[in-house]
Write a structure and sequence with these properties.
The chain has helices at about 25-30, 55-70, 80-90, and strands spanning about 5-10, 15-20, 40-50, 75. The protein has a single domain (about 5-100), classed as STAS domain (Transcription Regulator spoIIAA, 2-Layer Sandwich), CATH 3.30.750.24. The chain has a 4-stranded mixed beta sheet with strand order 1-2-3-4, with helices on one face. The chain is an alpha/beta fold. It is built from 3 helices and 4 strands. The protein is globular and about 30 Å long. It comes from Methylobacter tundripaludum. This is Phospholipid transport system transporter-binding protein.
């Protein structure tokens, strides 16, 4: 099982390292959501995500909801293909958060 780490590269840029799965996302991950208050715009780079499932998509949606409540703009970069496919199946691909962006 791969761990899930949220790495702060700068006050506005974070990298997710590890698996975004049911096995790695827990209450502690949800409690760490406060990093989204760091600035008005936060970038989350998903290029180091090793695997994902619907729990990863659910976590991203929670981050989006939290950022809206706190008036923070959240931008996802390098979204894994599997997450994009899950977003498409769920209808979330229409959200600007899931637009494919080059680095």
């Amino acid at each position: 099982m791969s761990q899930l780490n949220i790495i702060k590269e700068s006050p506005v840029h974070f990298v997710i390292d590890g698996a975004l799965t049911f096995a790695t996302i827990d209450k502690q991950t949800l409690k760490s959501i406060s990093f989204l208050k760091a600035a008005r715009e936060i970038t989350i780079d998903l290029s180091l995500v090793s695997s994902t499932d619907s729990a990863g998509l659910a976590l991203m949606i929670e981050w989006i909801k939290y950022s809206r409540q706190n008036r923070t703009q959240i931008v996802f970069k390098n979204i894994p293909e599997q997450l994009l496919n899950l977003a498409k199946l769920s209808g979330f691909d229409q959200s600007s958060h899931f637009a494919v962006q080059a680095d």
